[in-house]
């Protein structure tokens, strides 16, 4: 078999066997590539950071008896959670939007968590 | 471990001294510059770094190296200040463990995760618990609570007619969300096992969730 048809087959196989997560991560990475901020997987904890990505989920969670809004964002490299205490919703913060968040992160259950960050809605 | 203590009152100074002796790196933040100058002149407590700054102000608090601290203890004599310091430590510096002192028990409900507090210590409540512990036989006394109240350490002194007397811990059938952590008998601490048998007069220390507490009381004390 000539070399390049082997390559075509390999590529074809890869396309067939990719999971939805892989495809979604690739799409997110592409969509977040122009934000020009630290990738979530590279973001250090306990220093001020700016990270950005697509809002993948909104959840109102009771924390110590009062509601707080947890916004999950992803940029293809990982996921981060922004927690807004005492809020049920924030105008303009909806799933699918792109957002920049700025604050100090810490690790909680294997993900980066930023409490009450300042945020910019990109689109 | 690097510990930052806010407030150099008697509580703050004492904790600092204790922790420094145990070999930890301790920094005290105190707003009163005269107090800091005096302490630095006396060199007491030994091995403690002093910073004259207002811990309620982010930029000043940062000078104490809070961003590298493993623990922050907010132990000023003012509950408002303690809350602000806790919130800043958690939110602006991502400190893993924040301990705060409650001065007025009426304010204790606010010392939660919402304000960045991991553990709150209320001296008046502790005192009530200890006084209760001394006078009550046959009832459950709450000594401490952890994890924002999700776990409690309670103590029960078994009366002569308690239903648990003469039984071992395995057959007692305590609720799943509770465990006996120690039995104190004639001022000796017994590490509990499944075959430890309870006697009248035993002080039983139980770790329990609030939901399981009622069942623990019925099982141990009737």
What does this structure look like?
The complex is a heterodimer of chains A (123) and B (222). Chain A is an alpha+beta fold. Helix content of chain A is 23%, strand content 42%. Chain A has a single domain, classed as Beta Barrel (OB fold (Dihydrolipoamide Acetyltransferase, E2P)), CATH 2.40.50. Chain A has 2 helices and 6 strands. Chain A has a 5-stranded mixed β-barrel. Chain B is an alpha/beta fold and 222 residues long. Chain B contains 7 helices and 11 strands. In chain B, the strands form 2 sheets. Chain B has a 6-stranded parallel sheet, with helices on both faces. The termini of chain B are far apart. The mean pLDDT of chain B is 88. At the A-B interface, β4 of A face α4 of B.
Chain-averaged pLDDT of chain B: 88
* Helix and strand element order of chain B: EHEHEHEHEEHEEHEEEH
Query: How does CATH name the architecture of the largest domain in chain B?
Result: 3-Layer(aba) Sandwich
Secondary-structure element pattern of chain A, one letter each:
HHEEEEEE
Shape call of chain B:
elongated
CATH class of the largest domain in chain B, named Alpha Beta
Number of strands of chain B: 11
Strand content of chain B: 25-35%
Low-confidence spans of chain B: none
Secondary structure: elements and pairs:
The complex is a heterodimer of chains A (123) and B (222).
Chain A: H1 3-17, H2 20-32, E1 48-63, E2 66-74, E3 79-85, E4 98-108, E5 111-115, E6 118-121
Parallel strand pairs in A: 3-5
Antiparallel strand pairs in A: 1-2, 1-4, 2-3, 4-5, 4-6
Chain B: E1 2-6, H1 10-21, E2 25-30, H2 33-42, E3 48-52, H3 58-62, E4 71-74, H4 79-93, E5 97-102, E6 119-122, H5 123-135, E7 140-146, E8 151-157, H6 169-172, E9 178-185, E10 188-190, E11 203-208, H7 213-221
Parallel strand pairs in B: 1-2, 1-4, 2-3, 4-5, 5-6
Antiparallel strand pairs in B: 7-8, 8-11, 9-10, 9-11
């Amino acid at each position: 078999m000539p070399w390049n048809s082997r390559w075509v087959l390999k590529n074809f196989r890869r396309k067939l066997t990719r999971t939805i997560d892989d495809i979604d991560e690739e799409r997110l990475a592409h969509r977040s590539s122009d934000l020009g901020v630290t990738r979530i997987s590279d973001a250090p904890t306990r220093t001020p950071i700016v990270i950005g990505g697509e809002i993948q989920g909104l959840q109102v969670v009771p924390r110590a008896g009062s509601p707080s809004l947890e916004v999950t964002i992803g940029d293809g490299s990982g996921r981060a959670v922004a927690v807004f205490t005492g809020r049920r919703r924030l105008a303009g913060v909806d799933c699918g939007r792109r957002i920049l968040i700025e604050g100090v992160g810490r690790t909680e259950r294997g993900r980066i968590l930023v409490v009450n960050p300042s945020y910019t809605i990109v689109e | 471990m690097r510990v930052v203590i806010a407030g150099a009152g008697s509580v703050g100074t004492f904790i600092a001294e204790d922790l420094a002796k145990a070999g930890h790196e301790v920094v005290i933040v105190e707003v009163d510059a005269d107090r800091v100058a005096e302490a630095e002149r006396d060199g007491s407590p030994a091995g403690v770094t002093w910073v004259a700054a207002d811990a309620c102000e982010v930029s000043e608090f940062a000078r104490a190296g809070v961003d590298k601290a493993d623990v922050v203890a907010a132990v000023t004599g003012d509950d408002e200040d303690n809350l602000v310091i806790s919130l800043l430590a958690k939110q602006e510096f991502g400190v893993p463990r924040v301990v705060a002192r409650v001065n007025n028990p009426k304010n204790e409900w606010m010392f939660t995760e919402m304000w960045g507090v991991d553990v709150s210590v209320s001296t008046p409540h502790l005192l009530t618990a200890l006084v209760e512990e001394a006078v009550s036989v046959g009832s459950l006394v709450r000594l401490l609570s952890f994890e924002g109240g999700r776990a409690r350490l309670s103590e029960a002194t078994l009366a002569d007619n308690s239903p648990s007397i003469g039984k071992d811990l395995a057959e007692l059938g305590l609720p799943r969300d509770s465990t006996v952590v120690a039995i104190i008998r004639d001022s000796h601490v017994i590490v509990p096992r499944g075959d430890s048998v309870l006697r009248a007069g035993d002080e039983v220390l139980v770790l329990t969730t609030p939901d399981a507490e009622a069942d623990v009381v019925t099982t141990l004390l009737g």
